[in-house]
Design goal:
Distance between the termini: 38 Å
Strand content: under 5%
Order of helices and strands: HHHHHHHEEHHHHHHH
Helix content: 55-70%
Largest sheet: 2 strands, antiparallel
Number of helices: 14
Radius of gyration: 17 Å
Strand order of the largest sheet: 1-2
Shape: globular
C-alpha cells in the first residue's frame, strides 16, 4: 500500500509524476482502497470536449501534474504545490453535471477544498500542510474568474489565504494541462497569468505601476525555456 512518503517522493522527485500514478492505477488500487478511490473516481468523470480535448478528469490531472513537475522549482513551497496539482480537481466528481447537452462542473473548487482535506487526513496528520493544500485547491479557479471579470472572483479573500503567485503558477499548469496544446495556445495562457497577477496586484496595491509588477515575471519566471 503506497504511503504519504511514497507519493511525496514521486511528486517531488519525478519530472513526469504521471508515469508513477498511471502505473499505480493499473494495479486496481484506485478502485478499491479509500482514499485512493477519490483519485480513481476522476477516471469516470467526463469533461467538455471543447475545453478539455484530453478527455476525463484523470487525464487532465496527469497533464497538470507533469506541467507542475516541470515548474516546481518556481514554487515558494514545492511540496504544497505538487500535492495541490494532484488534488486540484477532486471536486469535479460531485460537481460535474450534464445539463442541456453541456458538461459543467460549477463550484468544483469549493467542493474540492473539503475533499482535499478528507484525502490528506487519511495520509498525514500535518494540519498546516493539509490546510495549505486545500486552500490552493479552493482558489485555483480564480485565474479564470479574475481575468474574465466574473462575479465569482474574490481577490481579497483569496490573497488572505494563499499567495497569488502560487495560485498563478498552479493556474498556469492547470491551463496548460489540456490536449492539443499548441505554442500559440501556450503563449495565450501565459499572457492570461500575467493579466491575473496584474489585476490582483492592482487590487491589493492600487498605487503600484504595471512595469513594477511585470518586471520580474518578464525575466522568464512565466515564459517557456
Amino acid at each position: 500500500m503506497p504511503t504519504f512518503s511514497e507519493f511525496d517522493a514521486h511528486l517531488m522527485r519525478d519530472q513526469k509524476p504521471s508515469s508513477y500514478f498511471n502505473k499505480l492505477s493499473k494495479t486496481g488500487l484506485f478502485n478499491v482502497k479509500y482514499p485512493y478511490t477519490m483519485l480513481g473516481d476522476l477516471m469516470k468523470v467526463p469533461q467538455s470536449p471543447k475545453h478539455h480535448p484530453e478527455g476525463n478528469v484523470w487525464n487532465h490531472t496527469m497533464l497538470v501534474l507533469d506541467n507542475a513537475g516541470e515548474r516546481k522549482q518556481l514554487s515558494q513551497d514545492p511540496n504544497v504545490f505538487m500535492w495541490s496539482a494532484l488534488l486540484h480537481d477532486l471536486g469535479k466528481t460531485p460537481a460535474t453535471k450534464l445539463t442541456k447537452g453541456r458538461i459543467t462542473s460549477y463550484d468544483h473548487d469549493k467542493l474540492g477544498e473539503s475533499l482535499a482535506v478528507k484525502f490528506l487526513k487519511e495520509l498525514t496528520d500535518d494540519e498546516a500542510f493539509i490546510k495549505q493544500v486545500s486552500k490552493m485547491v479552493r482558489w485555483h479557479m480564480q485565474i479564470l474568474f479574475v481575468t474574465k471579470k466574473l462575479p465569482f472572483a474574490d481577490i481579497g479573500k483569496m490573497a488572505s489565504e494563499v499567495s497569488i503567485h502560487e495560485i498563478a503558477l498552479l493556474g498556469l499548469c492547470d491551463r496548460l494541462g489540456r490536449g492539443n496544446m499548441t505554442l500559440d495556445k501556450k503563449q495565450e495562457e501565459e499572457k492570461s497569468i500575467l493579466t491575473f497577477l496584474e489585476k490582483c496586484t492592482h487590487y491589493l496595491n492600487p498605487g503600484i505601476h504595471k512595469e513594477s509588477l511585470l518586471g520580474s515575471a518578464n525575466n522568464s519566471e512565466w515564459s517557456e525555456e
